[in-house]
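Technical appendix A lists one of the benchmark inputs used to test multi-chain prediction within the project. The record comprises two sequence entries:
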Amino acid sequence: MSSPTITIEIPTPLRSFTDDQATVEVEGATVDEALDDLVARYPDLKSNLYTEDGELRQFVNIYAGDDDIRYLDGTDTALEDGTALSIVPSIAGG
Amino acid sequence: MSTTTAEPVLSTDELRRYNRHLTLPEFGREGQEKLKQASVLLVGAGGLGSPAATYLAAAGIGHIGLVDFDTVEASNLQRQILYGTSDIGRPKLDAAEERLRDLNPHVDITRHEVRLSSENALDIIDRYDVVADGTDNFPTRYLVNDACVLTGTPNVYASIFRFEGQVSVFATEDGPCYRCLYEEPPPPGLVPSCAEGGVLGVLPGLVGTLQATEVIKLITGMGDPLIGRLLMVDALRMNFRTLTVQKNPDCVICSDNATQTELIDYEAFCGIPDPDESTDDDMAVPETTVQQLKDARDNGDAPFLLDVRKPHEADIASIDADQLIPVDELASRLDELKAPKDKPVVIHCRSGARSERATEFLRQQGYDASNLKGGILAWSEEIDDSVPTY
């Protein structure tokens, strides 16, 4: 069985690393797998999303649907076909 | 003989002015009186503060405080609709107060012409019922959040970047705060400022009016405010979504287990070095001043000059760099770099922040690299004012 197809929403600050794509389709049964697939496709994203120790950066929030994965199962959160994953970075302009 | 002892809250003139509110059944005279008796502090009178202040004054908020210490610049006018061309060079709060008084003389305006800091924030914010955070940097975002939590003042938060905006309501009694959403700021330089990254002029108009809407809802008690929800606005796709924001049970400032009970050094928290201490830092990269660069060029001994901005920035302003490679592409495009390893390389960007990262990187690669201190802004100010600033 193939992995579920997940749409990842890329926020403006990171679109320069995804050839200006606002959404990227990846495959993964968990958040971790989906993000792995994303950085495999766009390697320059990696240092923006992960620390050198491979942890997701604190200021990068990942939402599955409308919910913060920190309050689900973190990067182990299971994903179904068609789940929208969003990267929600902090921005500070005024 | 007067029939009532209490003075009417709204004068005849005000009843006439606010007629369209009074005829809204959900709003009515009661809602208008609540606005009149409320005080709102706008932190930042820029892109977001302009529309927010304009609508809040027009709506009849009784007391508006404004925090800002900038002067009006030509580059503000593309989005900061409180100001006009004739205001260029004036302190923003002079121009803002004049405009808002003309718009609605029934509003009391208080000017706080200071940089909000850990020393003054609690004192200023504690005087207001609601805060609207429209600042333009991470240290002040965390400062405003913490001061709002510590004083129990709701914070209507909005921020913008390029074509994207975020709005939420933080620091209400039971709701989450900004730190529940973002525990830590990004390292300096990773998220560009609006000056570097640009912002669509109408975007703060859109987002600042959303912010004003939430302020009015909080004061009047109408509707469902964005407590525990983050509104994400994408102007390019014209997509609005709300995401759930949970109160973090371990939040350092707003949870029952809070460990932080006072304001801290927010520049240090956001990783911004103290300018008084950083000059002799062993970790700092070598710097070249704009005067040294000019002297070297005048003597026919020009170093290799590398521009690490984005190409569209070079279209705005250029100081004749030998080559342009954006800082984020430098590592992957190193083989394209034409700089010789046996000669000095000077690296520049707009203000000197991105080029500092690039300098550190190129030094690790064995180049005799130094950072042009103050970037193209310093060149424009000290050497050649025909180079536009942006």
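The two ends of chain A are 47 Å apart (CA to CA). The beta strands of chain A are 5-9, 23-27, 60-64, 67-68, 84-89. Comparable benchmark entries are summarised in Table A2.
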